[in-house]
Amino acid sequence: MKKRVVSRIFNRAYFVLLFLFLIIVNTPFEINHSVLKSAIYVGVLILTPALLVWDIYFYKPKLNKIYRILSPIIGFVVIFYLNPMEILDSSNVWNTEKVLFESKEDPNVKVEIQKQKMLTSSILKTRTVEVSYLTDKILKIKTYNKVNFDKNKWKKIQ
What we know:
The protein is of the alpha+beta class. It has two domains: 2-90; 95-156, no CATH class. It contains five helices and six strands, in the order αβααααβββββ. A six-stranded antiparallel sheet has the order 1-5-4-3-2-6. The radius of gyration is 20 Å and the shape is elongated. It starts with a helix and ends with a strand.
C-alpha cells in the first residue's frame, strides 16, 4: 500500500514537471526565475529514468503499468530529441543586458539584448528579442525582426 501511494505522488510530480517543461520548450513563454527553471529542467532529466525504473519494478498491476511507464518513455523521447546537454545549457535564465526600445502603447513590452551563460561551457549566448512581461518571472518572447520593425510604435532607451 505504501509503495502505491509513493508511486502516485512520484508519477503526479513527474507529470507536472514534464508538462511545465514541454510548455516552456514548445511555446514562446519563458520562466525568468533561475531556481524554478533549473528545478524543472534538471527534475525532468533526473526523474525520467528514476520513474521508469520505479514503475517497472515496484508497480504491480499489469494494465496500469503500461500507462504508468508511458510518461517516462515520452520523457526519454523528448530528452534524447533535445539532447541532455542542450537541456542543461537551457536551464539557465536569460539576463537582460540592455533595453533598446520600449513600447509607447504598453510599457511592459520591450526590445532587449539578453545573455545566457552556458552551464556545460563558459560560453555566453546573446539574443535580441521582443519581451512582453506578463509578471516579473513569466515572459513572452518574440524574435526581434529588424526588417519589419516600426519605430513609430517604440521609444528608444539608451
